[in-house]
Amino acid sequence: DADVTQTPRNRITKTGKRIMLECSQTKGHDRMYWYRQDPGLGLRLIYYSFDVKDINKGEISDGYSVSRQAQAKFSLSLESAIPNQTALYFCATRDNNYEQYFGPGTRLTVT
Amino acid sequence: GENVEQHPSTLSVQEGDSAVIKCTYSDSASNYFPWYKQELGKRPQLIIDIRSNVGEKKDQRIAVTLNKTAKHFSLHITETQPEDSAVYFCAAPPPGNNDMRFGAGTRLTVKP
What we know:
The structure holds two protein chains of two kinds. By secondary structure, chain A is mostly beta strands. Chain A is built from no helices and eleven strands.
């Protein structure tokens, strides 16, 4: 689904570095989400946003921050990366019928 | 908040057999229950969903059933094929329906 894109697709970084993951969408959806996927733990919500002025914490927001620069853009930052933040990160949007549309994912490795 | 539990974590079936995956949820106010399929290396994609005003929904070989009294819903795949092999996630929205809580996933393997 090219309507939701993420950059970078893969990233290796060192402990303590700041890193930003970016998400863009052309679906025109107001709601955007950042999830983290770990083996055996499913998809866990980090942050979500209803519009540019509305940001909400999810289940596991500690160590992360977000910025909603425009309706189409929602960025996730790790201010000081640590190894247990190694995971697959998905951005998603949601339509008015609750269906979520996921980006292709960013595989992040923190060494 | 909403708590979604999914079972089993892994499931292996022979091609042509049926597969059933079950999820339970904790918030009786939840009213939307989707199932997502994630193939290896790909993003999750919605395959079927059900809303609380119906008990069953079918789409070709897949179906979802909902028991609101018992707070559980199940995914049924009939006549399984190797291409059904994937990880399947159930989900339910917490109060306010503003986000989504996912189960831990079921890895389905269909053996030819």
